[in-house]
Amino acid sequence: MINGIVIIHKEPDYTSHDVVAKMRGICGQKKVGHTGTLDPMATGVLPVCLGSATKVCDMLADREKEYVAELLLGVETDTQDITGKRLAERNPEVSAEMVREAILSFQGEYSQIPPMYSALKVNGKKLYELARAGKEVERRPRAVYIRELEILECSLPVVRFRVICSKGTYIRTLCADIGEKLGCGGTMQSLRRTAVGAFRLEDAYTLEELQQLKDGGRLREAILPVDSVFGSCPVLHVRREYLRLLDNGNAILPEQTAEKELYAPDRWVRMYGADESFCGIYAYEADRKRYRPVKMFLEKE
Predict the structure, then answer these.
(1) Tens digit of pLDDT for each residue in 119-169?
(2) Residue range 233-296, CATH number
(3) Active-site positions, per UniProt (predicted)?
(4) Which of 33-47, 69-83, 91-105, 114-128 is predicted least confidently?
(5) Do residues 65 and 195 touch, judged by C-beta distance below 8 A?
(6) Which of 89, 108, 128, 148 sits most deeply, having the most CB atoms within 10 A of its CB?
(7) Which neighbouring-strand residues pair with 136?
(8) Whole-angstrom Cα distance, residue 52 to residue 235?
């Protein structure tokens, strides 16, 4: 079994589930998972986890994300992007400066209402299923955080911008909210995800490129190790005589590591065996003076 992470450059018209299905065929294994849905029309970075790395899917989904989007002003659709049914069209009587002020006003924390065409569940039903049935339900606003907003090009009625945002941010909804603030409406014309955490588009592979690597017996060249997700965490190595504790997912005492370091309570550390094999994420418990396992990644072929 292959254990690791591959950064997919998702192309248009593929769903995230389509990508997972393709990767199962390329890798020849069932244990494959994606780390956050991209709409079929969207392109860009989609980290896919293989084998033991599927345990980090939820962790990657929580990471900050970067997008480049195109906003079409003067158009409103039911899906908040150009794939949906047009609900209203008007001439956007706005200036470039008005657009700039409106867009940049969303930087920081703001309250966003999730779109009906989304995979969020209400009373056990996905919102998009209700929307397709012609039903609309009340959605609670959620706090999202926009760390950076940069206008890349303004050729009215189209505005291209870059955004770095927290998990759970809908760029379609951001586009609609900008249009509403300008009084002319707006919809998302295109979307490309350029980064998920430290994983960037320039390091991504298309499905075709991965198939070519597979055919040439070089697929593992594209696979990142599981611990690449935790690059900011300090490293500890368990001494050889205590490896059995590590293999069983037990707590580890500081003196049972080569470094004997004490880190701040609850600070995550990467725990390795004496042979440099990554085994898991641990956190220090100050009251018990030990490192407790947070999540284990014992790789078994």
Answers:
(1) 777 777 777 777 787 777 778 889 999 999 999 999 999 999 999 999 889
(2) 2.30.130.10
(3) 39 (nucleophile)
(4) 114-128
(5) yes
(6) 128
(7) none
(8) 19
Beta-carbon contacts of residue 73 (< 8 Å; ≥ 6 apart):
92, 94, 99, 156, 157, 158, 159, 179, 182, 184, 185, 186
What element of type H or E holds 123? none
| Residues acting as catalytic residues | 39
Angle at 51 between CA 31 and CA 205, to 5 degrees: 90
Query: Residue 294: is it exposed, middle or buried by C-beta count within 10 angstroms (0-12/13-18/19+)?
Result: middle
**4-63+198-227 matches 65-196 in fold:** yes
Q: Which residues pair with 32 in a beta bridge?
A: 50
What is the average per-residue pLDDT within 177-200? 95
Q: Which residue has the tokens 């991965």?
A: 210
- What is the dotted CATH code of the domain comprising 65-196? 3.30.2350.10
d(CA 273, CA 276): 5
Map residue 283 onto helix, strand or coil: strand
pTM score > 0.90 for this model? Answer: no
Q: Which class is domain 4-63+198-227?
A: alpha beta
Do the strands 65-73 and 186-196 form a parallel or antiparallel pair, or are they unpaired? antiparallel
- What is the number of other CB atoms lying within 10 angstroms of the CB of residue 53? 29
